[in-house]
Amino acid sequence: MIDAAVLVPALAANAADALPAGGLAKQLAKAKEEGRQLRIKFGIDPTSADIHLGHCVPLGKLREFQDAGHLVVLIIGDYTARVGDPSQRSKSRPLVSGEEIDANAKTYAEQAMRILDADRTEIRYNGEWLGAMTMVQLFGLVSRATVAQLLERDDFAKRYAANEPISMLEMLYPLLQGYDSVAIDADVEIGGTDQLYNLLMGRTLQPSYDKPAQTVLTMPILVGTDGTEKMSKSLGNHIGVTESVAEMFGKTMSIPDEAMPEWFRLASGLSHDERESHIARLSSGEMSPNETKRLLARRVVERFHGAEAGVEAEQRFNTIFQKGGIPDDVPELAAADIVANEDGKIFLPGFLVEHLGIASGSEARRVIQQGGVKFDGEAIPVDTLEIDPAQLHGVVLQVGKRKFLRITS
Predict the structure, then answer these.
(1) Which residues contact 166 (CB under 8 A, 6 or more apart)?
(2) Domain 332-408 indexed as CATH 3.40.50.1390
(3) Which residues of the chain are in CATH 3.10.290.10 domains?
(4) What does DSSP say about strands 215-219 and 17-19: parallel, antiparallel, or unpaired?
(5) Which CATH superfamily is domain 4-219 in?
(6) What is the b/e burial string over 352-372, where b = at least 16 CB atoms within 10 angstroms of the residue's CB?
(7) Over the stretch 37-66, which tens digit does the pLDDT of each residue have?
(8) In 3D, which of 340, 341, 404, 394 has the Cα closest to residue 372?
(9) Which residues, other chains included, contact 58 with Cβ-Cβ below 8 Å and sequence gap of 6+?
């Protein structure tokens, strides 16, 4: 392992909190003395199907620990997801069904490995110990915290002061997440700044179970593509790690210029020196905002799809946005495979959902009404809902700026 004195500044880079002060340095030094790996904990609840760039901020920090020779324990919160994390919420969070949680959990580990080193990752599901907990054990856990301690949470405190309901289920969440640290013998836990209370609860609980208290590192929350709100799938300002190269590049190019320094630091995956160099060149005017953003967009694509994909994505972007053309690699659909309705027509919103990746029929209608659907470069009338199949033969459909489909005869 690299010398602990060298590691501490690098491993703490970009962290919002590193608690207690000096704790990480002591743990690294002790691990080196004992010749062992630190166990670095990170938990994620599978409440949606995809991991986005916001999730990759702490995942990137985990990878830094792995590169320094330590072991990451990735906890998939299949059990805590059934409770619902109240962090940064002003009301109870709707619970996700067990079927959805199980389905999402299967995708999380695979997606996380786009960032993490599988050989230095231990994947655990907290249903393993929380699901087996007896009532006596649960009572023992609950007895280790007071109502006053739980009401120190900012979100709980605000709701309590406003006389808004706080369920007992929600109050269990930080205790259950904290117990995860006990169960897996965490040395360090990493999470977003919105998780600070939960992470500190793990540190509080461990000594009560005769285990050393973990060090806590929190990472900043990545702003979404809108440049204002936290990246979130529900807000539609996210970039998923499994999205196409075109979507990744195009969405990154859409972020406000002022968000670029934060994105370089938190989303690029570049080394500290590389990202700070690019930020400095942007600040000094040596690189233009457009040039810098292109570099950032290429890097985001390369991080998840490989070096060649970044170049290809930029070329495609140039074809669409600078030359006003159609990319060469447009997906194709044979006209013979298009199924008309009983009237011999094609219901366009349904067609866009099925073949162009539009999320829903209502979203497809909205895009049509905004003039966002084009046939061979010409916007269709905004009131078009049904079309004759013959209208599609040999046509290239375009939805928005990045979705294309060629209909072959």
Answers:
(1) 86, 156, 159, 160
(2) no
(3) 332-408
(4) antiparallel
(5) HUPs (3.40.50.620)
(6) bbebbebeeeeebeebbeeeb
(7) 999 999 988 877 778 999 999 999 999 999
(8) 404
(9) 42, 190, 191, 192, 219
